[in-house]
Amino acid sequence: MRGILAQGAVLVGKGPKGPTSVGGGWFLAVAAVLFTIGIVGLLLRRNVLVMFMCIELMLNAVNLTFVTFARMLNDIGGQVVVFFIMVVAAAEVVVGLGIVVSIFRRRKIGATADSAVLLKG
Amino acid sequence: MLSFIWIVPALPLFGFVVLLLLGKRIGEPLSGWLATAMVGGSFLTAVAVFTDLASKSAEERAYTKVLWSWLPSLGVDVALLVNPLSMTMVMFVTGIATLIHVFAIGYMHGDLRFPRFFTYLNLFVFSMLMLVLADNFVLMFLGWEGVGACSYLLISFWFERPSAASAGKKAFVVNRIGDFGLMGAMFLIFNQTGSLQYHAVFRSIETNGIAKSTATAICLLLFVGACGKSAQLPLYVWLPDAMEGPTPVSALIHAATMVTAGVYLMVRVHPLLELAPGVLTIIAWVGALTALFAATIATAQDDIKRVLAYSTISQLGYMFLAVGVGGNVAAIFHMVTHAFFKALMFLAAGSVIHGMHGVVADEQNMKWMGNLKKWMPFTTGTFLMGWVAIAGVPPFAGFWSKDEILLDAYQHNKALWVVGLVTALLTAYYMTRQIVLVFFGKERFGGAAHGHGDENHGHDAGGHSPHESPVLMLLPLAVLAGLSIVGGLINQPFGGKGLASKLERWLDESFIPGTKMHAFVGEHASVASGTKLTLAIIATLCGLAGIALGASQWLRRTTPAAQAQLEIPLLKRAYGVDALYSTIIEKPGRKLSEFLAFVVDRRVIDGAVNGMATLVRGGGTQLRRLQNGYVRSSALGIAGGLVALLVWALVRTAL
Amino acid sequence: MVDWIVFLAGTLIALSGAIGVVTLPNPVHAALSLVLTLFGVAVLFVAQAAHFLAIVQIIVYAGAVVVLFLFVIMLLGVDRTESDLATEPLRGQRPAAAVIGVAALGLLLALSQVHLTIGATSTAGAADGPGTNVEKIADSVFTRYVFAFEITSVLLVIAVVGAVLLARKPRLQSAELTG
Predict the structure, then answer these.
(1) If pLDDT is split at 50, 70 and 90, which confidence band does A15 have?
(2) B318: left (phi over 0), alpha (psi -120 to 50) or beta
(3) Chain C closest CA to B642's CA: distance in Å?
(4) Which residue has the higher pLDDT, B40 or B327?
(5) Peptide bond just before B234 cis, omega within 30 deg
(6) Calpha distance B143→A8 (Å, rounded)
(7) How is residue B232 annotated by DSSP?
(8) Distance (Å, whole) CA B270 – CA B198
(9) pLDDT for position B26
(10) What is the pLDDT of residues B129-153, one digit of tens each?
(11) Which residues contact A59 (CB under 8 A, 6 or more apart)?
(12) Which of A58, A103, A114, A118 to mutate to test the interface with B (most CBs of B within 10 A)?
């Protein structure tokens, strides 16, 4: 137990500061997969809120990409961008959910993204 | 006085405009009198100008009145040329037109479109005067087209009759073929000489010369135009059908004036014709053959106006024959005398038709006439004057002019002379036949000839008899009869400088300013007066023989059965020329039009346009499916765009 | 070695959470999977020495945004699911989604291997070096990007106002309309 905690401490704070030795390309790959999963989920799910969550997935993938590049290019600007992305994402979620609430408040069952077809051409 | 020449065409033009705008309001008969006054005024002015011109010496007899500048690039202005030829034409055109206007006031009485008729007549006179007085080809062509248009309007005046409407169209279309030739000639002339004004053209030809082939081409094309307008072979087919128009129209346009425009043109461009002798021969032969051809057809016609129509074609043939053998004086002389007696006979025929109205169903068919001298003595008398004139009986007008033509033909080519003689015989024969059938013999309009409930007649069937026409119609007949009698005096062949042989000297002694060319008359050898006399006697004998033949044959055939014995179906059908044209020209033309209308226009062009619309609509329907209202479809689109962007980014960096 | 374990752990957590979001029919379950993903991504942040961001991620994303999601799910009652993965009313959506997924993945992976350098150097300060991560971020945000910072605070205010307006009870709105 102690050893594990010690290992954890090493990981978190006591260990060597600085980024990992795993190459940036791997992280980028992970971000790419996350992003793809987000896209596919967005296209396939009909529940509005789940669609929103998929958008959050995509945003997280982007954040991961930025942080990776911040490390690869040794530029703190990447992390600053992520900061702002998070703020904007939060604001976006707030407003988006407000819209969802106002549209789907009355419908109880079957309130999916496919219900809003007034723009049918 | 000469400078007042512009009044001559201006008066009918003014009449036309006034009647066009106010005709309906002026109404009958005032509109008729107004029109007559205009044309009469033209005539008086023309007389004044003529006297003034005659008082000048030969070299000065060419005066141009420029009204305003028109097309400098073509070298033409709106200008009127006063010279012997144009004044001769103007005199008899306006004179006869005035008489016919008077006649028409009586003839068209009661017609619903009375003012319109006189509107057209005045327009016609204006156009004809422009044609004759123009000093350049372009203005002449304006008048040429104008008379063609008026001819169309007047032939189809009673357009409710389908035959009249189609006759008008036929006239216009056949004329157009001739116009095409005339235009081609104008193009060539301009190309050759750089101008279209008569005197400038002639001057240029004298100074620069002209290739024989070009001259031949020009003259041939001009002759094509003349054929169309003057109804020579093969463009004559419109004239018999043109008889659908009211009789004053037939008299004015298709006897005296419009159809002579072709002859006038030939004489006007005489210096050019001299340079293309081949064309002159063609003109002579076409004229001679037309004369013979038409004369044969005239012997078999039953409609009183059709006989006169074919007779006109035949006499025009004589005029062209004269032109072709170099006898321009003879041609003009015959034109003038022919105008007198043919107009007279047409008007008299109109009087007959007017008198037979209500008596028979078809008031133009000679079969149902006979012995009208009892009922319409005055008309009979005047018609007989015309008859002797055309038959060539001395000392009436027709004899002198026809004899002049035969003399010139004899000098040139004996074969043409023989054709002319035969035609003269036939002319006398068919004219005699006509007067016998109409005015002599037994009355044939009783009995089965009545028209019951015919829409032309408002009265019951019953014993109406023919009646004489009102004075208004008889007066012009009298004047024209007088002219037919004495008209020959203007050109007696006995030489000398007296009043006689006036026309010859008048036309002979006129020159084109700036050149040494005679305006109208070429060189011709003089003939011994002994020969002249012999030829005159031969011609007279032919005429008398024709009369005798006609009288002997037709006086005794008083029943339709007897008349039918002499009928030759081929001649009655006018050699089937109309049917021939229909087969070789009309039917293929119609097939082509149908093809173009139904296949090309309907299927190809409409198909393309409609197909375009269908295509757009189909495309729209398909594109519409994109807008199905589902948010997720839009999301799919966005994702697709994303992939595209990624591809682009990859391509950009990889390359 | 440890780095690799950390990396793999973080990846596994993130990806399994992501798949859970996409495939779980119940939206509440999906929200919880999202939390899992966020946690995995936070681990990956830490692995890359972005400590501040990892914490902010947990606090803001997992702690506030997902909670907000859950509130709305409960409010609208859409947790009573119809399985929306069983059928697909739009024709061609599934195949198109598959194609796009594959294409996007492939392209992104390819792009990640391509070196898109423009030769610019660090402009906002180095990511490594002395000083904590927080200090470095603070340094950038409050000097170089302070304007953006202020704007985002305005944005948050606007978002709150908007949300309050949007989520009002409809009764009041219709009364205003008819009155």
Answers:
(1) very low
(2) alpha
(3) 8
(4) B40
(5) yes
(6) 117
(7) -
(8) 11
(9) 78
(10) 999 988 889 889 999 999 999 989 9
(11) A85, A89
(12) A114
The tokens for B162 are 């389908």
What is the per-residue pLDDT for A91? 94
Give exposure, A17-39, as e/b (b: 16+ Cβ within 10 Å).
eebbebebebbbbbbbbbbbbbb
Contacts of B645 in chain C (CB under 8 A): none
Substitution target from C94, C105, C111, C116 for chain B, most B beta carbons within 10 A:
C111
Whether A118 and chain B come into contact, CB under 8 Å, resolves to yes
CB distance A39–C104 less than 8 Å?
Answer: yes
pLDDT at B456: 39
**Are C163 and A95 a contacting pair at CB < 8 A?**
yes
**Number of CB pairs < 8 Å for A and C?**
264
ipTM: 0.87
d(CA B96, CA B43): 9
The verdict on B618 touching C (C-beta cutoff 8 Å) is: no
Interatomic CA distance for residues B567 and B569, integer angstroms:
6
pLDDT band at C57 (very low <50, low <70, confident <90, very high): very high
In whole angstroms, give the CA distance from residue B236 to residue B244.
Answer: 15
pLDDT for the residue B43: 92
At residue B79, the pLDDT reads 81
Cis omega (within 30 of 0) on the bond before C27?
Answer: no
Contact residues, chain A, for B628 at CB < 8 Å: 117, 120-121
Asked if residue C25 has a cis previous peptide bond (ω within 30° of 0), the answer is no
Banded model confidence at residue B645, pLDDT cuts 50, 70, 90? very high
Q: What percent of chain A clears pLDDT 70, i.e. is strictly above it?
A: 74
Cα-based distances in Å from C163 to A51, A94, C153, C157: 19, 6, 15, 10
Nearest-5° Cα angle at B263, B178 to B130 = 80
The reply to whether C124 touches chain B by the CB within 8 Å rule is no
Residues of B with CB below 8 A from A113's CB? 630-632
DSSP H helices, B27-136, are 30-54, 84-107, 114-133
Q: Which of chain C's residues have a Cβ under 8 Å away from the Cβ of B642? A: 100, 104
Q: Does B647 touch chain A (CB under 8 A)?
A: no
Chain B hits for A121, CB-CB cut-off 8 Å, are 624, 626-629
Q: Which of C76, C101, C128 sits opposite A40 (nearest CB)?
A: C101
B350: nearest Cα among B81, B106, B626: B106
User: Which candidate, B248, B354, B245, places its Cα nearest to that of B32?
Assistant: B248
Q: Which helix (H) or strand (E) holds B610?
A: helix B606-624
Neighbours of B472 (CB within 10 A): 16
Element (DSSP H or E) covering residue B77? strand B76-82
Residue with tokens 């020159």: B511
Distance from CA of B655 to the nearest CA of C (A): 11
Question: Quick one: tokens of B462?
Answer: 């019953």
Which secondary structure element, helix H or strand E, spans residue C68, and what is its range? helix C66-76
Q: Which residues in C lie closer than 8 A to residue A100 (C-beta atoms)? A: 72, 76
Among A4-13, A68-77, B447-456, which stretch is predicted with the lowest mean pLDDT?
B447-456
Determine the distance from the C-alpha atom of residue B548 to the mean position of all C-alpha atoms in its chain, rounded to a whole number. 32
pTM for this predicted structure: 0.66
pLDDT of residue A28: 93
pLDDT, averaged across chain A: 82
Average the pLDDT over each of B421-425, B498-502, C91-95 and give the range with the smallest value.
B498-502
- Nearest CA to B257 among B294, B297, B312, B306? B312
Here the tokens at position C163 are 């949300």
B626 or B434, higher pLDDT: B434
For residue C90, give the nearest of B630, B642, B653 by CB distance. Answer: B630
